[in-house]
Amino acid sequence: IIGTNKETPTTLRDIFISVKTTSKYHVSRIRLIQKTWYALARDETYFFTDGDDKELNKDLGGHLVNTNCTTGHSRRALSCKMAVEIDFYMASRKRRALSCKMAVEINFYMASRKRWFCHLDDDVYLNVPRLLSLLQKYNHKQDWYLGKPSLRHPLEVIDRENPGMKIAFWFATGGAGFCISRSLALKMAPYASGGRFMTTAEQIRLPDDCTIGYIIEHLLKRHLTIIDQFHSHLEALYLIKRHQLEKQVTFSYSKYSGKLNVLNIDGFSVEEDPTRLKSLHCILFPTFHECQDFPRE
Ligand code: UDP
Ligand code: MN
């Protein structure tokens, strides 16, 4: 244990797992989560989205939260200049929508009174037992911000309070997952709960995961602890070796302009498992029902 811990050991029930999603991914991404790691952390996992989906909500035991963050927009024929303006507007709308979601996630977590808040994107595979053994090493009564940056350097932004000056801080990429201890979450409340997260996000005009880093590193002067076992699709996922899989906490996948960034593992066919997450799940947890037909060497 890092830091003294006279508490009872952390169990899965002490962890709040919060997944950010959006209506268009309910079928593709959430169904994949349901078929894989979700079975290991049903009661602990909540999904934060932007539209109603009664059927999915029922399947998730009422854990689908409609944040009502985005509103519809009308489509018009646009001149090129207007298109640029609108792009700008959409970007800020998305930023606002996402940080609104994060604000709702944080409020739910606060209400849950759990020891740890862990945020994931909906294209993340969570190795649930590994997450638990990781968090058991840290005392939730101390301030911990665990995650993995995607930049090799701190993020630099201009300091609005001191014109001409810059501030620099590290942040954990939301797409790799990050966890915050309760002690730290309580200190973040003045900047992050009760709608204030959006105000903070608007002040620095950055995405929600950067805002988290800004609050913790810059405003609260606590530091990010880098966990190498968290992996977003901003890393080359095929570099993770087969024998290292069990030790990793999160994985992801992506497809940009036709190019896949996925784990390089054998298993189900590419047609059946383009993201490789079903195969990963069966390598980690071979006794699962979904793994009955898993091809083994
Ligand atoms: N997302 C969202 N609203 C949107 C678009 C994306 O909440 O309008 C969420 C999405 O569900 C995911 C995260 O934001 O959890 C990142 O989205 P995505 O993986 O599509 O993009 P990335 O930023 O990783 O390229
Ligand atoms: Mn992503």
Describe the structure in brief:
By secondary structure, this protein is an alpha/beta fold. The protein contains eight helices and 13 strands. Uridine-5'-diphosphate binds at residues 20-22, 25, 94, 98, 101, 121-123, 175.
What's the count of strands? 13
**Unreliable segments of 5+ consecutive residues:** 71-84
* Oligomeric state, counting identical vs distinct chains: single chain
- From the alpha carbons, calculate the radius of gyration and give it in angstroms: 20 Å
- Please give the alpha-carbon distance between the first and last residues: 38 Å
The percent range for strand residues is 15-25%
Order of helices and strands: EHEHEHEEHEEEEHHHEEEEH
Strand order of the largest sheet: 3-2-1-4-9-6-10
Question: Shape, please?
Answer: globular
Instruction: Report on the biggest sheet.
Output: 7 strands, mixed
Class based on secondary structure composition and strand pairing: alpha/beta
Helix content: 25-40%
Count of alpha and pi helical runs: 8
Cofactors and ligands:
uridine-5'-diphosphate, manganese (II) ion
Average pLDDT level: 89
